[in-house]
User: Fold this.
Amino acid sequence: MKFIDQAIIILKAGNGGNGIISFKREKNNPKGGPDGGDGGDGGSIFFEANKNLNTLIDYTFKKFIQAENGESGKNRNKSGKKGKDIKLFIPLGTKIINYFTNEIIKEFKYHKQSFLIIQGGWHGIGNYRFKSSTNRTPKKRTLGKIGDTIKVKLELSLLADIGIIGLPNVGKSTFMRIISSAKPKIGNYCFTTLQPNLGVFFTKSKKSITFADIPGIMKGASKGVGLGLKFLRHIEKCKILFHIIDLSVPNYQTIIKNINTINKEIRAYKNNLYKKKKWLVFNKSDLLNKKDIKYKIKKILKKIPNIEKYFVISAIKKTGLENLYKSLQKII
Assistant:
């Protein structure tokens, strides 16, 4: 299924049904009293979060959604039928934003969380309700109210504990494949990952840690180059960022430059994201000998400050992962 993380839709609640004017017309009572019934309420529109959804693709086809109108009242004091409500299902992490004011109306964080977005119009009242001791034949009724209308933007942010970032082709997708149940596409070319991927790592105590793999960020991303920056909001709520680095690049100074490129682009996007805790994951260690690895790591760490943890791994060979796994056990 195609990953869609934004959509703009117009929602229209149902109109309330009108009350009616009616009088009894019976054989033995040709001038009977009022019996005009009330209308039915218009249908309302609700949103409900569902943990089994991960895309807003349904709302790329439904640009206008309208709930059912209430029926008008009937004679013999019968009320009109209420319009059917509509329930719209969305993924966890979806925000509903007012299209015109950019105000966040609601954010969905747990399964089956429900929210009334617009109320159906109230029903009109039939003339039966206006009967009184001083007015035995009322010719008054009220019309149903018009249902609310709203234009909203739906914006999905994947809910993950750890965000995976890095330049294209550093092995992020391979890392995701071995650490979780995700099966992202893998290839030896830029932009293999065209959309965020979610994966889950289970600790020894069976607790889950969710990873979000963001498409590769590159120089100029904050100005619209490449794909990665478009999806960075998906990791704004992550506890930790895993920065995957290609250690096999021949010149350690180039590696430092690559790390700083990512940091610069993230900072340009949002400073709060830049300040998140980062763990460096040096990948492709199988292409180097131990002496070169030690030399490069020493030089790199001198130039990259405030790194809490770092790991040296080979995702493709599945080596060097033990310490990383042990550290993951401690973050839950």
Summary: The helical segments are 172-179, 252-269, 271-274, 290-303, 322-329.
